[in-house]
Amino acid sequence: MPDITEMPASVELDVRRWGSRHQDPLLASEDELLALASLVQVDRRDIFLRDRANETMLERLDLNAYQTLAFGTHVVIPDDGRPAIAEPALLLRVSDRINSDDDGILTESEIARLNVAADLVMLSICRKSGPPSRPGGEALSELARAFLLAGAHALLVGHWGSERDAMRALTERTMVFLGHHPAAGRAAALRRAMIDMIETAPDVRYSHPALWAAFKIVGDGRG
Q1: Is-contact 113 150, C-beta < 8 A?
Q2: In the beta sheet, which residues pair with residue 123?
Q3: Is residue 90 a contact partner of residue 144, using CB atoms and an 8 Å limit?
Q4: Strand 154-158 relative to strand 120-126: parallel, antiparallel, unpaired?
Q5: 70: which strand partners?
Q6: SS3 17
Q7: In DSSP terms, which residues pair with 89 in a beta bridge?
Q8: Helical H runs in the chain?
Q9: Contact of 19 with 89, CB cutoff 8 Å
Q10: pLDDT digits over 135-175, tens only?
Protein backbone atom coordinates (compact mmCIF):
# COMPACT_ATOMS: atom_id res chain seq x y z
CA MET A 1 0.00 0.00 0.00
CA PRO A 2 1.69 3.25 -1.12
CA ASP A 3 2.67 5.82 1.47
CA ILE A 4 1.60 9.45 1.25
CA THR A 5 5.20 10.42 0.47
CA GLU A 6 4.99 8.53 -2.82
CA MET A 7 2.41 10.91 -4.24
CA PRO A 8 3.67 13.12 -7.09
CA ALA A 9 4.28 16.80 -6.46
CA SER A 10 1.64 19.50 -6.61
CA VAL A 11 1.65 22.91 -8.25
CA GLU A 12 0.37 25.45 -5.74
CA LEU A 13 -0.53 29.02 -6.61
CA ASP A 14 -1.21 32.10 -4.47
CA VAL A 15 -1.67 35.73 -5.51
CA ARG A 16 -1.77 39.14 -3.85
CA ARG A 17 -3.34 41.64 -6.27
CA TRP A 18 -5.55 42.18 -9.29
CA GLY A 19 -4.22 44.82 -11.71
CA SER A 20 -3.25 47.95 -9.84
CA ARG A 21 -5.93 47.31 -7.27
CA HIS A 22 -4.65 45.41 -4.23
CA GLN A 23 -6.58 42.48 -2.85
CA ASP A 24 -6.52 41.30 0.73
CA PRO A 25 -3.38 39.19 1.33
CA LEU A 26 -4.28 35.52 1.52
CA LEU A 27 -1.84 34.64 4.26
CA ALA A 28 -4.07 31.84 5.52
CA SER A 29 -4.18 30.32 2.04
CA GLU A 30 -0.42 30.49 1.75
CA ASP A 31 0.01 28.75 5.10
CA GLU A 32 -2.55 26.14 4.05
CA LEU A 33 -0.78 25.40 0.77
CA LEU A 34 2.64 25.20 2.42
CA ALA A 35 1.28 22.81 5.06
CA LEU A 36 -0.27 20.63 2.36
CA ALA A 37 2.96 20.68 0.37
CA SER A 38 4.89 19.57 3.45
CA LEU A 39 2.39 16.80 4.09
CA VAL A 40 2.87 15.22 0.66
CA GLN A 41 6.54 16.22 0.48
CA VAL A 42 6.31 18.49 -2.54
CA ASP A 43 9.54 19.82 -4.00
CA ARG A 44 9.90 23.52 -3.18
CA ARG A 45 10.42 24.22 -6.87
CA ASP A 46 6.85 23.10 -7.51
CA ILE A 47 5.33 25.67 -5.14
CA PHE A 48 4.52 28.97 -6.83
CA LEU A 49 3.68 31.86 -4.49
CA ARG A 50 3.27 35.62 -4.90
CA ASP A 51 5.38 36.95 -7.81
CA ARG A 52 5.96 33.46 -9.20
CA ALA A 53 2.23 32.78 -9.52
CA ASN A 54 1.47 34.27 -12.93
CA GLU A 55 -0.01 33.19 -16.24
CA THR A 56 3.36 33.05 -18.00
CA MET A 57 4.62 30.55 -15.43
CA LEU A 58 1.46 28.48 -15.76
CA GLU A 59 1.74 28.34 -19.54
CA ARG A 60 5.38 27.23 -19.39
CA LEU A 61 4.72 24.35 -17.00
CA ASP A 62 4.05 20.85 -18.26
CA LEU A 63 0.82 20.43 -16.32
CA ASN A 64 0.54 16.83 -17.51
CA ALA A 65 3.43 16.01 -15.17
CA TYR A 66 1.40 16.76 -12.04
CA GLN A 67 -1.06 14.42 -10.38
CA THR A 68 -2.40 17.11 -8.05
CA LEU A 69 -2.90 20.84 -8.60
CA ALA A 70 -3.83 23.17 -5.74
CA PHE A 71 -4.85 26.79 -6.22
CA GLY A 72 -5.14 29.19 -3.27
CA THR A 73 -6.26 32.57 -4.56
CA HIS A 74 -9.06 35.06 -5.12
CA VAL A 75 -11.86 34.28 -7.54
CA VAL A 76 -13.89 36.94 -9.30
CA ILE A 77 -17.23 36.70 -11.03
CA PRO A 78 -18.89 38.94 -13.63
CA ASP A 79 -20.73 42.02 -12.38
CA ASP A 80 -19.02 42.11 -8.98
CA GLY A 81 -17.46 45.53 -9.49
CA ARG A 82 -14.86 44.61 -12.12
CA PRO A 83 -16.37 45.56 -15.50
CA ALA A 84 -13.53 43.97 -17.45
CA ILE A 85 -14.41 40.52 -16.13
CA ALA A 86 -16.86 38.81 -18.50
CA GLU A 87 -16.62 35.31 -17.02
CA PRO A 88 -15.55 33.65 -13.76
CA ALA A 89 -11.81 33.78 -13.22
CA LEU A 90 -8.98 33.01 -10.85
CA LEU A 91 -6.59 35.86 -10.07
CA LEU A 92 -2.88 35.35 -10.63
CA ARG A 93 -0.05 37.77 -10.05
CA VAL A 94 0.03 40.64 -12.53
CA SER A 95 3.30 41.14 -14.37
CA ASP A 96 4.94 44.56 -14.31
CA ARG A 97 4.52 44.55 -18.07
CA ILE A 98 0.92 43.66 -18.72
CA ASN A 99 0.09 42.35 -22.18
CA SER A 100 -2.93 40.72 -23.72
CA ASP A 101 -1.67 37.25 -22.82
CA ASP A 102 -0.60 37.88 -19.22
CA ASP A 103 -3.08 40.09 -17.43
CA GLY A 104 -3.20 38.17 -14.16
CA ILE A 105 -6.75 36.96 -14.84
CA LEU A 106 -7.12 33.23 -15.54
CA THR A 107 -10.60 33.06 -16.99
CA GLU A 108 -12.91 30.10 -17.38
CA SER A 109 -12.20 29.86 -21.11
CA GLU A 110 -8.42 30.08 -20.55
CA ILE A 111 -8.61 27.29 -17.97
CA ALA A 112 -10.54 25.11 -20.42
CA ARG A 113 -7.70 25.49 -22.96
CA LEU A 114 -5.04 24.25 -20.53
CA ASN A 115 -3.65 20.73 -20.98
CA VAL A 116 -4.19 19.13 -17.57
CA ALA A 117 -3.93 15.47 -16.57
CA ALA A 118 -4.32 15.87 -12.80
CA ASP A 119 -6.24 13.28 -10.83
CA LEU A 120 -7.33 16.05 -8.45
CA VAL A 121 -7.51 19.85 -8.63
CA MET A 122 -8.03 21.58 -5.30
CA LEU A 123 -9.57 25.05 -5.30
CA SER A 124 -9.03 26.93 -2.03
CA ILE A 125 -10.45 30.29 -3.02
CA CYS A 126 -11.53 33.56 -1.46
CA ARG A 127 -14.31 35.73 -2.87
CA LYS A 128 -15.94 38.93 -1.72
CA SER A 129 -19.73 38.80 -1.63
CA GLY A 130 -21.00 39.11 -5.16
CA PRO A 131 -24.26 40.28 -6.72
CA PRO A 132 -27.45 38.33 -6.04
CA SER A 133 -27.84 37.78 -9.78
CA ARG A 134 -24.62 35.77 -9.92
CA PRO A 135 -24.33 33.30 -7.02
CA GLY A 136 -20.79 32.34 -6.10
CA GLY A 137 -21.66 28.64 -6.27
CA GLU A 138 -22.66 29.00 -9.93
CA ALA A 139 -19.39 30.71 -10.81
CA LEU A 140 -17.39 28.09 -8.95
CA SER A 141 -19.23 25.35 -10.81
CA GLU A 142 -18.29 26.98 -14.11
CA LEU A 143 -14.62 27.09 -13.08
CA ALA A 144 -14.80 23.43 -12.05
CA ARG A 145 -16.32 22.52 -15.42
CA ALA A 146 -13.48 24.38 -17.15
CA PHE A 147 -10.86 22.28 -15.35
CA LEU A 148 -12.72 19.11 -16.32
CA LEU A 149 -12.71 20.25 -19.96
CA ALA A 150 -8.96 20.85 -19.63
CA GLY A 151 -8.50 17.20 -18.70
CA ALA A 152 -8.67 17.07 -14.88
CA HIS A 153 -10.34 13.95 -13.50
CA ALA A 154 -11.88 15.55 -10.42
CA LEU A 155 -11.90 18.68 -8.26
CA LEU A 156 -12.23 19.32 -4.55
CA VAL A 157 -14.20 22.54 -4.18
CA GLY A 158 -16.27 24.37 -1.58
CA HIS A 159 -19.54 26.10 -2.45
CA TRP A 160 -19.46 28.64 0.36
CA GLY A 161 -16.94 30.18 2.73
CA SER A 162 -15.55 27.83 5.37
CA GLU A 163 -13.50 28.38 8.49
CA ARG A 164 -9.87 28.25 7.35
CA ASP A 165 -8.46 25.94 10.04
CA ALA A 166 -11.35 23.51 9.64
CA MET A 167 -10.92 23.54 5.87
CA ARG A 168 -7.21 22.90 6.24
CA ALA A 169 -7.85 19.96 8.58
CA LEU A 170 -10.37 18.49 6.13
CA THR A 171 -8.13 18.75 3.08
CA GLU A 172 -5.15 17.30 4.94
CA ARG A 173 -7.20 14.33 6.12
CA THR A 174 -8.51 13.81 2.60
CA MET A 175 -5.02 13.73 1.10
CA VAL A 176 -3.64 11.43 3.80
CA PHE A 177 -6.44 8.90 3.30
CA LEU A 178 -6.13 9.13 -0.49
CA GLY A 179 -2.39 8.59 -0.25
CA HIS A 180 -2.78 5.43 1.82
CA HIS A 181 -5.87 4.11 0.02
CA PRO A 182 -5.75 5.33 -3.60
CA ALA A 183 -8.02 2.53 -4.81
CA ALA A 184 -10.79 3.75 -2.50
CA GLY A 185 -11.20 6.86 -4.64
CA ARG A 186 -11.46 10.58 -4.12
CA ALA A 187 -15.08 10.64 -2.96
CA ALA A 188 -14.39 7.97 -0.35
CA ALA A 189 -11.34 9.92 0.84
CA LEU A 190 -13.42 13.06 1.36
CA ARG A 191 -16.14 11.07 3.12
CA ARG A 192 -13.57 9.47 5.44
CA ALA A 193 -12.10 12.90 6.19
CA MET A 194 -15.53 14.23 7.11
CA ILE A 195 -16.15 11.30 9.44
CA ASP A 196 -12.77 11.95 11.06
CA MET A 197 -13.69 15.60 11.53
CA ILE A 198 -16.82 14.53 13.42
CA GLU A 199 -15.09 11.90 15.53
CA THR A 200 -11.53 13.15 16.08
CA ALA A 201 -11.31 16.85 15.22
CA PRO A 202 -8.56 18.59 17.27
CA ASP A 203 -11.03 21.34 18.13
CA VAL A 204 -14.56 20.33 19.10
CA ARG A 205 -15.92 23.22 17.01
CA TYR A 206 -14.59 21.58 13.85
CA SER A 207 -16.83 18.56 14.36
CA HIS A 208 -19.83 20.58 13.19
CA PRO A 209 -20.59 20.06 9.47
CA ALA A 210 -21.39 23.76 9.03
CA LEU A 211 -17.65 24.41 8.88
CA TRP A 212 -16.82 21.96 6.10
CA ALA A 213 -20.00 20.51 4.56
CA ALA A 214 -19.64 22.91 1.62
CA PHE A 215 -16.87 20.76 0.17
CA LYS A 216 -17.55 18.16 -2.46
CA ILE A 217 -15.85 16.20 -5.19
CA VAL A 218 -16.77 17.34 -8.69
CA GLY A 219 -16.07 14.92 -11.53
CA ASP A 220 -14.86 11.35 -11.19
CA GLY A 221 -14.80 10.38 -7.51
CA ARG A 222 -13.60 6.82 -8.11
CA GLY A 223 -10.14 5.44 -7.51
Answers
A1: yes
A2: 71
A3: no
A4: parallel
A5: 12, 122
A6: strand
A7: 76, 107
A8: 27-39, 55-60, 108-112, 136-150, 164-180, 186-200
A9: no
A10: 455 667 889 999 999 999 999 987 665 667 788 888 889 99
